[in-house]
């Protein structure tokens, strides 16, 4: 069992408490832990429902579980929301007292959050999710390179004694020791409703193709929404566990706010920054996986030479290159796409890497990249305007950046696609597709059905049940 005495941190705690001023400050300490299952830890604290998050990177290198929100950050200035959040995190940094002399990346004061697709919110469906939000977790489990760490970010008053703080820490260790395996239960929805009829979808796509043909747009990404209803409140833990089991090569995320949870399994990295090195990805162009190895390979080869998908992919490559080139001293982008295979879908994929200029941060990259043509369209502003005028749904945080960042502005953000908003007994699922000049409404409809499958599978059903 983990105890404070065994961890030998009392002496360091005493020193840290000497830095607590009369207003109080946050104390951050990180402890090595062992054999903690991340989903079990998440599920163990149902008392903190509404203040939990989970993140697992697509390559499996890092997993976060955040329980309880020690502090939260918002921006009311929609035009400067990236800069406002960056400044808020810098101000928070000044309030932190760290027990460790040297912090391991991904531990300590790590912030999790995201942004809405548009700068403004127009609909009440996302009532618990503001246009942007980041949280500092009170408890953060980090699983990294087979090592595990528990970070505690505690608000300390000047009146708190060493015994008071030691008691707080021991209480958290006792909670870790009491974690039990998650109980797996079968889920299935009782009803599923398409928020857009096929005729409405066909009209929307034809309208977009007409504007592209007229030269007003090069490409626009349009989304559909379906609503799945359950007899009882949807257990977030069960959905998350199903995604972890079924979507191994995806970013798995969930963020809870009050009575809502935003959850998904996205294949698409928007940007990662680690000590000034940038990684991004162009992911556009889609087909299904094959039933056999030979069929799977044939589908991949067909995708690599499909004009419509290659055109769609090239828009994304060009835009990402144009967006990050001014931010980087060096930039590397392969000349041809490769195939990225997921459990049910495969995509055209082109990786992007570069070295950021000295004064550039991950927030600059987020502002430059969002939304890419894979999520919005090209030209960017014209596509955004078309979506706002014509798409009959409120995107909220769908297709927007979600991820984590630390005090040194290292972090990673994915694009929140293949996702759902859970509210009580209702799940709203989102899926989109890129529209270009030769897009066919039925083919695009089928593609969105395919993209609904990760979340529908995690919820206990499949799109075949719906058709």
What's the CATH H-level superfamily name of the largest domain? Anthranilate synthase
Q: What is the alpha-carbon Rg in Å?
A: 23 Å
- Total domains, how many? 2
- CATH structural class of the largest domain: Alpha Beta
Q: Whole-number average pLDDT?
A: 91
Q: How many β-strands, per DSSP? A: 21
The class by helix and strand makeup works out as: alpha+beta
Low-confidence stretches: 1-6, 463-467
Could you tell me the strand content as a percent range?
25-35%
Active site: 219, 268
Catalytic activity: chorismate = isochorismate
Cofactor: Mg(2+)
Function: Catalyzes the conversion of chorismate to isochorismate.
Explain how this protein is built.
The structure is a single chain. This protein is an alpha+beta fold and 467 residues long. The chain has 2 domains: 4-177, no CATH class; 191-465, Anthranilate synthase. Helix content is 30%, strand content 33%. It contains 12 helices and 21 strands. It has helices at residues 4-7, 10-17, 38-44, 81-93, 162-177, 198-213, 236-246, 293-304, 307-324, 362-369, 380-390, 441-458, and strands spanning 25-33, 52-56, 62-74, 96-98, 110-115, 132-144, 147-156, 191-194, 219-229, 251-257, 260-266, 269-274, 277-288, 328-332, 338-341, 345-356, 377-378, 401-406, 411-415, 419-423, 426-435. The chain has a 21-stranded mixed beta sheet that branches. Strand 2 and strand 3 (62-74) form a beta hairpin. Helix 7 packs across helix 12.
